[in-house]
Write a structure and sequence with these properties.
By secondary structure, the chain is an alpha+beta fold. Strands 2-3-1-5-4 form a five-stranded mixed β-sheet, with helices on one face. The longest helix has about 30 residues. The protein is elongated. The protein starts with 5 loop residues before the first strand and ends in an 8-residue tail after the last helix.
């Protein structure tokens, strides 16, 4: 994937509490779903804007988006302290379009005016895309009762999650040995 197809993201989970697997899963799922919704929206915008591209190409990309729906958020690193997950929001739509069209008409696609027009169109949208994804992430997490702050720039997205004190099971766990027998 090229840099055009990735938006760096950092998810900061604040609080002294332990993070339950359920909360972590909910956060990751919500971020992935929010980004995936934007991918589908982007595909529809591209479909409307570039009616020279045959419908079967868009149908193929949409089918592949469905197949790769769990791959929108790619986690690359984790840091201690408050939990910080670093990764990228993969631009699946443009990546799949390039693969699908590239496979269909090989080198002629890369040299075509359509390829350049699509690339310029997407480059203009990157800042907007990260902000839309940020807003979507905030909405999804807050639907799940997770307090969230978002900082989205043209280059990246930072998600700040505050754990609910009711979810703090650390006092029940600290100092206790977990028996695996």
């Amino acid at each position: 994937m090229s840099e055009l197809e990735k938006i760096p993201i950092r998810i900061h989970i604040r609080g002294d509490a332990f993070v339950s697997a359920q909360n972590l899963e909910s956060i990751i799922y919500s971020v992935n779903e929010a980004a995936l919704e934007v991918e589908y929206h982007e595909l529809n915008i591209i479909r409307e804007e570039f009616n020279d591209i045959p419908d079967y190409i868009f149908d193929s990309v949409e089918l592949n988006l469905q197949r790769k729906s769990g791959s929108t958020l790619l986690i690359q690193e984790a840091h201690s302290g408050s939990i910080v997950l670093g990764g990228v929001i993969a631009g699946l739509t443009i990546w799949l379009l390039n693969i699908t069209i590239g496979t269909t008409i090989k080198e002629a696609w890369k040299e075509s005016g359509m390829h350049q027009k699509l690339k310029e169109f997407l480059l203009k949208k990157i800042g907007t895309k990260s902000q839309v994804i940020g807003e979507n992430i905030k909405s999804k997490l807050e639907e799940n009762g997770i307090e969230t702050g978002i900082e989205a720039t043209d280059e990246s997205i930072d998600v700040y999650v505050s754990q609910n004190e009711d979810d703090d099971i650390s006092s029940d766990i600290k100092g206790k040995r977990i028996d695996r027998d």
